[in-house]
Write a structure and sequence with these properties.
The chain is an alpha+beta fold. The chain is built from 10 helices and 14 strands. About 40% of the residues lie in helices and about 20% in strands. The strands form 4 sheets. A 7-stranded mixed β-sheet has the order 2-3-4-13-5-8-9, with helices on both faces. A 3-stranded antiparallel β-sheet has the order 11-10-12, with no helix packed on it. The longest helix is centred in the N-terminal third of the chain and has 19 residues.
């Protein structure tokens, strides 16, 4: 049975150090271990709880089963002025996409807009981690990925042929915070289903249905049904269409897995997933004065927040508000780690011969 109880609050530096030690013990070089740990901790700081240290036991299983290359040679295999295609050599997805973002940013400084796709990558955590990277260079960031398991059938079907294929976009502001959208193309990401199962909690109606279209709320029975696309039962064809387009851009275009080729990394720890991802960087200065764009974004954000509200609505939020609030709270109070996850991490620490969290 899942362990229930109050989550422990763990200081971010402690969590990052533990994750880095685990990655080092699993065979990653020290610099790579620290890079992966930093990105996983950032995921937890911003409240993406299904993509941070929660994934560490799963990553460890895949590494130990030979499903991930701990010493990848990430390289460019196709390149033009405004684009590149990189081969991740089956390395940790965090390392592959960090490198992809760096290449996209460097190229966008020259060409204005740059696109970098990847093949033979792996799960890389929340999409917003990489869409946000161009922000520091006064650039817009866009990120696309094929998910690491199919949980979505074609609209009207029951065969799992499409994943939750996420998209993220980040726009720099001036006095106002950046606008950062990060979403799956299903009503809920599958990572949220897994965290519900670990905590012994039910899923809300509307996340999943069984193969007869009836609501499915027990996360431990998720194999009996599928996630609903954005739009739900009424307009899910729109979410399915968006998931398909993102998969074509991040997977098919890059020679990465899509459709039947996608490996379910939840149930297969040894096969190479060939995960496809893509990132675009857009240099604001190529379109005019940087401060002019930021001022216009600020004005728009203020107008949106000041819009008249429906009855019962306390405030209007914009994409990125919740993750920013979570980052402030978790940096101050510590990152919440559920009892069941803490037990898994303690078990893993024992297996790896490192100090527990």
């Amino acid at each position: 049975m899942p362990m229930t109880g109050t989550a422990a609050r763990v200081e971010a530096g402690r969590l990052r150090g533990f994750t880095a030690r685990a990655m080092l013990a699993l065979g990653l070089p020290a610099d790579d271990a620290d890079s992966v740990a930093a990105l996983m901790t950032e995921a937890d700081l911003q409240g993406s709880e299904g993509h941070g240290v929660f994934r560490l036991p799963q990553y460890a299983r895949r590494i130990r089963a030979g499903g991930v290359n701990t010493n990848p040679k990430i390289r460019i295999i196709e390149e033009r002025a405004g684009m590149a295609l990189i081969d991740g050599d089956n390395g940790m997805g965090h390392l592959v996409m960090k490198r992809a973002a760096e290449i996209a940013i460097a190229k966008a400084r020259v060409t204005g807009i740059a696109w970098v796709g990847s093949r033979f990558s792996n799960h890389a955590g929340p999409a917003s981690l990489y869409a946000r990277m161009p922000l520091a260079q006064d650039m817009i960031g866009l990120y696309f990925a094929v998910g690491n398991a199919n949980h979505l059938p074609p609209w009207g079907g029951i065969d799992m042929l499409i994943s939750t294929n996420p998209i993220a976009a980040a726009f720099p502001g001036g006095a106002e915070p950046p606008i950062v959208l990060d979403m799956a193309t299903t009503v809920a990401a599958y990572g949220k289903v897994k965290t519900k199962a670990q905590r012994g909690e039910a899923m809300p109606e509307g996340w999943m249905v069984d193969r007869d279209g009836r609501p499915l709320t027990d996360p431990n029975r998720s194999d009996e049904g599928f996630l609903l696309p954005l739009g739900g039962m009424e307009a899910g064809y729109k979410g399915f269409g968006l998931a398909l387009v993102i998969g074509l851009l991040a997977g098919t275009l890059n020679g990465a897995a899509m459709g039947k080729e996608v490996i379910d990394f939840n149930n297969d720890s040894s096969s190479v997933t060939n995960t496809g991802q893509a990132i675009m960087a857009i240099d604001l200065s190529a379109f005019g004065p940087i401060e002019s764009f930021k001022a216009r974004l600020d004005a728009l954000a203020r107008d949106l927040r000041a819009a008249r509200r429906m009855s019962g609505v306390e405030k209007i939020s914009l994409p990125g508000d919740n993750s920013r609030a979570a980052r402030i709270r978790n940096a101050r109070e510590g990152i919440p780690v559920a009892p069941a996850l803490m037990a898994e991490l303690a078990k893993l620490a024992g297996e790896l011969g490192i100090a527990t969290l």
